[in-house]
Amino acid sequence: MKIFTTTREVQDYLADLRNNGKTTGFVATMGALHRGHLSLIAQAKQHNNVVICSIFVNPTQFNDPSDLEKYPRPIEKDTQMLIDAGCDILFNPPVNEMYAAHEHWHLQLGEIEHLLEGKFRPGHYQGVTQVVYKLFNIIKPDAAYFGQKDYQQFMVISKLVVLMHLPVKLVMCPILREDDGLAMSSRNIHLTAEDRQHSLVLSKTLFRIRDEFDANNIPALLDEAAAFINAETGVSLEYFEFADSETLQPANQNTKNIVALVAARVGKTRLIDNILIN
């Protein structure tokens, strides 16, 4: 696996590959890799000649400086995992390679920026689009692979691609879960043994509500989900919502395709999850 830390080096290398007719699949990460990330690498390998993964803990998408500071950065372990997964290129730049001093960014994302995650993490999606725009311009991938777990992020990046006319195909890959149902996340490393057990209420609620779903009974189902989660020790619900899977506006009985999304703090760790209803 080739490892690059500068924009110039990775661009030159990728330009040679493109000149030789190679297609590139890209997986953007903040490191602390798990099997969910590796499933994205596997998807990219199936459909592209070359797979590139970036590891960059992006400071502009963190609202809480302490959250940024404690974000796990096991780069040696991550590098070995990528080698074992057959990744071809790792792009691991320092912050000063990605950002100049006093850099400004604002993209008119519309309502999607302020719904759900946007309510609890104001400015988060400006940071996400800022770094993804940079990475797409540096790497110029044919296709980019993202996990369904960050469903709203995928929708926001889809809007970025449209607004900035970026020639990249976006692929949403299914959530990978632990055997007990917990969605895989880099943040799971922060869960204590007790938190880990309490966190299962999120996936259990999603599965339960999916199985019970009735579009004519949405308010009651929302109340049921909230009560089920709030009854769990050590879990503080931020939101549980049914949304239109294309707009993320609140769903109603006439919405054709629905996604249920949840966010909660389990102990000191904030977790998100979702499930497609229909």
What does this structure look like?
The structure is a single chain. With 278 residues, the protein is of the alpha/beta class. It has 2 domains: 2-173, Rossmann fold (3-Layer(aba) Sandwich); 186-272, Pantoate-beta-alanine ligase, C-terminal domain (Pantoate--beta-alanine Ligase, Chain: A,domain 2), CATH 3.30.1300. The chain is 40% helix and 20% strand. The strands form 2 sheets. A 6-stranded parallel β-sheet has the order 1-4-3-2-5-6, with helices on both faces. Strands 7-8-9 form a 3-stranded antiparallel β-sheet. The mean pLDDT is 97.
- Which fold does the CATH topology of the largest domain refer to? Rossmann fold
Strand-residue fraction? 15-25%
Number of individual domains = 2
Task: State the CATH superfamily name of the largest domain.
Answer: HUPs
Low-confidence stretches: none
Q: Tally of extended strands?
A: 9
N-to-C terminal Cα separation, in Å? 40 Å
Question: In CATH, what is the class of the largest domain?
Answer: Alpha Beta
Major beta sheet, strand line-up: 1-4-3-2-5-6
Helicity, as a percent range:
40-55%
Structural class: alpha/beta
Backbone CA Rg: 19 Å
From the structure above, extract its key features:
278 residues, alpha/beta, three-stranded antiparallel beta sheet, Rossmann fold
Layout of helices and strands, plus pairs?
Elements: E1 2-4, H1 7-19, E2 24-29, H2 35-47, E3 50-55, H3 65-70, H4 75-85, E4 89-91, H5 95-98, H6 117-120, H7 124-139, E5 143-147, H8 151-163, E6 169-173, H9 193-198, H10 200-212, H11 218-230, E7 235-244, E8 258-266, E9 269-276
Helix pairs in contact: 7-8, 10-11
